[in-house]
Amino acid sequence: MIQVAKFLPPSYETNYNKLTGPTGPCVYPAFHVYIHSALYYVTDKGEDIKLAQVIYAGLYLCTLALVLASYRRAGAPPWLLVPLILSKRLHSIFLLRLFNDCWATFFFWLAVYGATRKRWSIMVLAWTLALNVKMTMLLPLPALGAILVQGAGTERAVFWGVVSAITTMGSAAPFMGTEEAPIYFRQAFDLGRQFMYKWTVNWMFIPEEAFLSKQFAYTFLAAHASILLAFLHYKWVRPSSGGLPHFVRKYLNYTAIEAVEQDKGSKRMTPQFVMDALLGSIVIGMMCARSLHYQFYSYLGWATPYIMWRSGAHLVRVVGACALQELAWLIYPQTEWGSISVVLLLALQVASSWQSMPTSYDPVALAKEEKKLQ
């Protein structure tokens, strides 16, 4: 609130270096500023905490409704509601801490729900709003791109990509002055941001010196890229292609794709497939993250029950994994064993995502199609 107060009249400050508060300058994209500017007026400059909690309670319920609607579209059983609604950490993030991640989570699940209904416009625009609240929403981008190209075709995918870019630039318009623009992008989308060791949830079991080293960051960047490429090649492009090279050649040569073939690829973007891909992309990114903070559970907590169920796990295993994860994320300050548990459970979910997704659709037909493009 202190930061956005400087953006509002009478100051009208648009230099991100000068939108400062007790935690330093603003480091989130423009839509974050607009949301909290609205909250600034509604909650009497942030003084009416009770009203803010009521607003966030409504946001929690709306997000839960989207999650349940998405689960239902994917055929998930009703008992998954239990681990979804009993999370103390999620309640804390939404109703006590009032993190901006709550808004990003809401828009992300609106994008997931749009994807389950093949409403590509809703998927892209909701994800764009989520990204413009918090940069964390770059994590599902690879899966979202694969879904959009296969579901909508190359031309429409490019169109919606341009719309997303224009929306992002448009939302940042007040901060796009000659001097302000570089500062805005450097702070709002800083991929090389240094994190403090004392706040990490996932890597407390390694020495601080190793945690802060560049080698540590580069290792996980390489691991993230490698796992994403494996999922893209073997899982996310398989509804329409024999692998990533085939997928690239096919959709670059989109004029040669027959309407029947495009329709076939679109039909394979089932609710289960799009949820598998989008939620899988989230947990891959979190497993390979240089540092996770407690508010990141807002992205993970809603996804874990579905991911574990989709792997074919028994009810006891699903609920047990959710309970263990909840306990690990409730530890404060974080301990070595707690952070080990966080990493192991994330690895389990990545493995579960891999296991749950089919590797091919009619491989004989796809092999013939690939030969035609060679």
UniProtKB/TrEMBL annotation:
Q: Which EC number(s) does the record attach to this protein?
A: 2.4.1.258
Q: Does Transferase show up as a keyword for this record?
A: yes
The GO terms describing molecular function are: dol-P-Man:Man(5)GlcNAc(2)-PP-Dol alpha-1,3-mannosyltransferase activity
Q: Which UniProt keywords apply?
A: Endoplasmic reticulum, Glycosyltransferase, Membrane, Transferase, Transmembrane, Transmembrane helix
Q: Which Pfam families match?
A: ALG3
**InterPro entries named in the record:** Glycosyltransferase_ALG3
Its UniProt pathway annotation is: Protein modification; protein glycosylation
Locate the transmembrane regions by residue number: 51-71, 92-112, 124-145
Membrane topology label? Multi-pass membrane protein
Catalytic function, reaction form: an alpha-D-Man-(1->2)-alpha-D-Man-(1->2)-alpha-D-Man-(1->3)-[alpha-D-Man-(1->6)]-beta-D-Man-(1->4)-beta-D-GlcNAc-(1->4)-alpha-D-GlcNAc-diphospho-di-trans,poly-cis-dolichol + a di-trans,poly-cis-dolichyl beta-D-mannosyl phosphate = an alpha-D-Man-(1->2)-alpha-D-Man-(1->2)-alpha-D-Man-(1->3)-[alpha-D-Man-(1->3)-alpha-D-Man-(1->6)]-beta-D-Man-(1->4)-beta-D-GlcNAc-(1->4)-alpha-D-GlcNAc-diphospho-di-trans,poly-cis-dolichol + a di-trans,poly-cis-dolichyl phosphate + H(+)
Localization per Swiss-Prot or TrEMBL: Endoplasmic reticulum membrane
The record's family statement is: Belongs to the glycosyltransferase ALG3 family.
What's this chain's function?
Dol-P-Man:Man(5)GlcNAc(2)-PP-Dol alpha-1,3-mannosyltransferase that operates in the biosynthetic pathway of dolichol-linked oligosaccharides, the glycan precursors employed in protein asparagine (N)-glycosylation. The assembly of dolichol-linked oligosaccharides begins on the cytosolic side of the endoplasmic reticulum membrane and finishes in its lumen. The sequential addition of sugars to dolichol pyrophosphate produces dolichol-linked oligosaccharides containing fourteen sugars, including two GlcNAcs, nine mannoses and three glucoses.
Q: Any idea what this protein is called?
A: Dol-P-Man:Man(5)GlcNAc(2)-PP-Dol alpha-1,3-mannosyltransferase
Natural source organism: Knufia obscura
Provide the taxonomic classification.
Eukaryota, Fungi, Dikarya, Ascomycota, Pezizomycotina
Query: Gene encoding this polypeptide?
Result: ALG3
